[in-house]
Amino acid sequence: MRTTSNPAFRNLPTGGGQQAGFGQPYDQPYGQQQYGAEQYGGYQGAPPVAGERPITIDDVVTKTAMTLALTLVTGFISAWLVLSGQVAPFALMLPGLIIGLVVSLVIIFKRKPSAPLVLTYAAAEGVFLGGITGVFESFFPGIAWQAILGTFGVFGAMLVVYKTGAIRVTPRLTKWIIGATVGAAVLMLGNLVMGLFGVNMGLRDGGTLAIVFSLIVIGIAAFNFLLDFESANEMIRSGVPSKWAWWAAFGLMTTLVWLYLEILRLLSYLQSGD
């Protein structure tokens, strides 16, 4: 399996099934990988045991839809509480951020799929995103719907790109995406640290450089979907147990959250300049 910048997909098991996945037929996998002999993130998996059925595309779609729906519901409730003035934004954002971060680390290091943990993560992220969205919406009315539509638009476009094979997930592309993701993360961290010392790098101040940087980050996040789709696809082709669909849903949600936040930020830059 190819390396991915999404930590959720670094600990996948292997199996013995040979099923059709998101877009590529199993009999023509990229690079003719031998899935049953690989190790993912140090975890050596096995074919489903008696009573366990292998994962299918429907499993991934269903679990991802459930996770996303919970995030949207908690997000809408949180945003409404903030906009109505019933709850202070940080009273929602801080707990949501902390709980989401802790649960995500537990999921990643536990290396086992867990529906309760993934759903807890989704609910916490919804509270966190709802709090932030409420703040942005109070300054820029209508920005929330624009960000949501933009996020789903990018997600849908990258899914079409993946399914049609317009962009092939090759080892070279994978390395480029991972390198770009790490580079963007380093720049954002550096900007945060320098900001604490009163140094403005111009990456998050709403200026021209900030807009360009935000567009680049959105592009990087979008390309990360290709790696997420390919990782989920390899789970399907290798026939891991169906419970691992929760792991795939978690991986896709982490990228969706990142993309939404970046689109929300970009829209605020553009609207503040009007």
Describe the protein.
This protein is mainly α. It has one domain (18-23, 53-272). Helices cover 66% and strands 0% of the residues.
Detail the topology: elements first, then pairings:
Elements: H1 57-83, H2 89-110, H3 115-139, H4 143-164, H5 171-196, H6 208-238, H7 245-272
Helix pairs in contact: 1-3, 1-7, 2-3, 3-7, 4-6, 4-7, 5-6, 6-7
- Give start-end ranges of low-pLDDT stretches: 10-20, 23-46
- Biggest sheet details: none
How many domain units?
1
Distance between the termini: 46 Å
Strand content: under 5%
Number of strands: 0
- Quaternary class: single chain
The coarse overall form would be globular
Compressed to H and E, one letter per element, the order equals: HHHHHHH
CA-based gyration radius:
19 Å
* Helix percentage: 55-70%
Kindly report the average pLDDT value: 84
Number of helices: 7
Region (Disordered): 1-23
Keywords: Membrane, Transmembrane, Transmembrane helix
Protein name: YccA/Bax inhibitor family protein
Transmembrane segments: 65-83, 89-109, 116-136, 142-161, 173-197, 209-232, 244-261
